[in-house]
Amino acid sequence: MASTLGRRLVGDGRLFRRFARSGDCARTNSSYTKAQKSPRIYLYGTAAACSLYFGWKWLQSNTVVEAARYPRRLPEDQSLKGLKLNHRERRFIKFASAEYQGQLYMTPQDFIESVTDSEPRPRLKRRTLWNKDLDRFHQETPPLAKGSPEMFRTIFEKGIISYTEYLFLLSILTKPQTGFRIAFNMFDTDGNERVDKEEFLVLEKIFSTARRDRLNRALEGAVKASETGEEETEPLEDELQKSHVVDTTLLVHFFGRKGKQDLKFEEFKMFMENLQTEVLEIEFNEFSKGLPAITELDFARILLRYTYLQSDQYEMYLDRLLDRIPDGQGITFNEFKSFCQFLNTLDDFAIAMRMYTLADQPISQEEFHRAVKICTGAELSPHIVDTVFKIFDDDGDGQLSYKEFIAIMRDRLHRGFKHTSRSEGWDAFKQCVKSEMKAVV
């Protein structure tokens, strides 16, 4: 996800890197890391002065510019600060913009934003839904036969997604097509090749039961405390995962308004493919600006946007690509989609590479092509493979260090969700400056 402070220090900050290149505080995806530093003592004063200057400038801009961009943060963000939530729980609470009878819900728009944006859109408070709102949502929810790769964008705010459905949808985004059948069989408890509404809800109960004890300890009273400042005895587990009292948009889409329809595998597969395609289209369109292709540099930015790299490392990859492809031919959506579908088989690819190169040797483009074909049954375009090599080939010898490639692509695949949360904001910047001070003394 997009960096704020790290990019600002680099963007303002060619000057900052000249003074303290070996000791800068950089952040990618809302995380601060420390580069390896030169031990020279004279950098102490310069680095400290620059750190304080840019820290003051960052704080000033965030209290003025960012305040204009994001008028108010929801109060629950502060109340959840000390709670032991995992990243998915925090993200769901952060992006969920609707509430019905004390339970938090995402809208389809919220879900799309949660996997493509670093911050939710500005809002003063959550929207409280009533029965008439849900009735209207049900009427406007398309049936399975009318599903499309634009469904979430079409429904927009006229729908609700529960927390357990949020986890389910996240898992879909990283599923290879070979895993669609396994996912379907998880729901098909009686093995009749059809999933009914009750079978679908079984996994939600499993999610809720398995996590209840931890959530009861960690989330108690967070919603009410955030809104009123008072203690709440009812745990937030209820707000996230209590049994449905209404049908969500997903349930109506799968099983109809009366809940009597069955879900077949081909319909389930089509839904998963459509969701994957929709998210990729949104990412692609962000960079294509209405054109049929994105630049190779934009492709690199998409691959690296969810990774935890220092800003200098991030720039190094982009500069390397610019040097090696000064005039690119562009990358189409189909090429981009094929590569992202390959990333969903990354675990199989890693196994294939370990078996193919027992000595952990770098691989050639030909070997890369072969491994992709084995894992996916499909071929990537020669141009997109060549672009990947030009991004990740360290010394330009035509060989790829697949371990580094896989590590970075795992971040891309999971969109940062696999990482533990790290310090953010002004507190993180101060901690980074303190570390720099200690290290150069």
Automatic annotation (TrEMBL):
Protein's name in the database: Calcium uptake protein 3, mitochondrial
PANTHER family: EF HAND DOMAIN FAMILY A1,A2-RELATED (PTHR12294), MITOCHONDRIAL CALCIUM UPTAKE 3, ISOFORM D (PTHR12294:SF13)
Subcellular location: Mitochondrion inner membrane; Mitochondrion intermembrane space
Gene behind the chain: MICU3
InterPro entries the record matches: EF-hand-dom_pair (IPR011992), EF_Hand_1_Ca_BS (IPR018247), EF_hand_dom (IPR002048), MICU1/2/3 (IPR039800)
PROSITE patterns associated with the record: EF_HAND_1 (PS00018), EF_HAND_2 (PS50222)
Family annotation (CDD domains): EFh_MICU
BP GO annotations: calcium import into the mitochondrion; mitochondrial calcium ion homeostasis
Keywords: Calcium, Membrane, Mitochondrion, Mitochondrion inner membrane, Repeat, Transit peptide
Gene Ontology cellular-component annotations: mitochondrial intermembrane space; uniplex complex
Highest taxon above the source species: Eukaryota
Domain EF-hand as annotated: residue spans: 175-210, 380-415
